[in-house]
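Q: what does this look like with zinc ion bound?
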Amino acid sequence: MERYESAKEIYRTIGVDTDAAIEKLRRVPLSLHCWQGDDVVGFDQDGPLSGGIQTTGNYPGRAKDPAELMADLGEAFSLIPGGHKLNLHACYAIFEDGKRADRDALLPEHFAKWVEFAKKHGMGLDFNPTCFSHPMVKDGLTLSSPDREVRDFWIRHCICCLRISEYFAKETGVPCVMNIWIPDGYKDIPADRLGPRARFADSLDRILSTPYDKSLVYVALESKVFGIGVESYTVGSSEFTINYAARHGILSLMDNGHYHPTEVVSDKIPSMLLFNEKIALHITRGVRWDSDHVIRLDDETKELCREIVRNDALDRVFIATDYFDASINRIAAWAIGARNLQKALLSALLEPSAELKKLQDEGRFTRLLAEQEELKTMPFGDVWDRYCEVCGVPAGEKWISEMERYEAEVTSKR
Ligand code: RNT
Ligand code: ZN
């Protein structure tokens, strides 16, 4: 308490209101990806993960059924401050009485248990068609396949997902972001780069020609530069998704693991904000490639959050996490990554951005550099602890012992 009061006073001297920052961040919903809890396996198939994405590690305690995944998510949410949403994938359908449905026949009722879970936790739901880990992915292709039957299957799947997304929004009262990402691409240099993209565009046209309520569902399209096994060419490249989204009034989704290693999403955000009312993000951490490591409080995560906050775009950017590490405690992975994202947002809210912009415009670059560096040693940790307390989650290191208790009592016994 005393430490917070003293920090508050220090931030006041640089014109920053810590109480206002805390209040603002509490209302920002962060969409937590369900797939960290079970290594992107899902409940509708038992084959390997495909689509050029990979989990590595064999840490014990992976959630193996809906009850376990929900329990683990509940534990994770109790450790993460701020507003929440849960991000689901279609492969997390829950079939009761052994009545299974294939991906092109999924119904809202297969997600009724998730709606119940969301209502219990007072949160909205986001959704993703699962266009991977399935026998109808032929030669690594889905919506861009030259085989009409394959394309039709995945078009039907995405249309089912639109219905389910509407159902989520109606039931929870919170709009649902439905993000389309396809793994389609080629391992080696293609002979035709245009054809697959034309087919992908046509498939998307057919999906989006299905009427859906645009005030309830925001459809997003995620780009990617390459994947394992699709090193030479991906159909859904950045240019493809940005142009398609702009022309068809859907959202562009940028995943910060999906660009060349020296390209940063932080710098893309302001350009996208200039030309789009809303954008969507997947936040992850790539180490040498799109490895989906747990988010750290590193420079790029902070810079990403700065671009959202200082452009006053917290209500224009749908922020979601997307990483999967199977080598550590999975609940800790959720908590560490999401807490780091919250820390980055809070620290951006504690910067005197108007003042810093002014220094830039006045060409006072020495003072700008000096102030930016001084900010780094402000008593941020005391404001963070206060934020956790206000949100009713463990502050400082206290969450670690809670996570370890849960591991000893629950996940280690699986
Ligand atoms: C893959 C994309 C995609 C997936 C999830 C599971 O590279 O980032 O968003 O991670 O759909
Ligand atoms: Zn992603």
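The chain has 14 helices and ten strands. Residues 222, 255, 282, 322 surround zinc ion (ligand 2) (CB under 6 Å).
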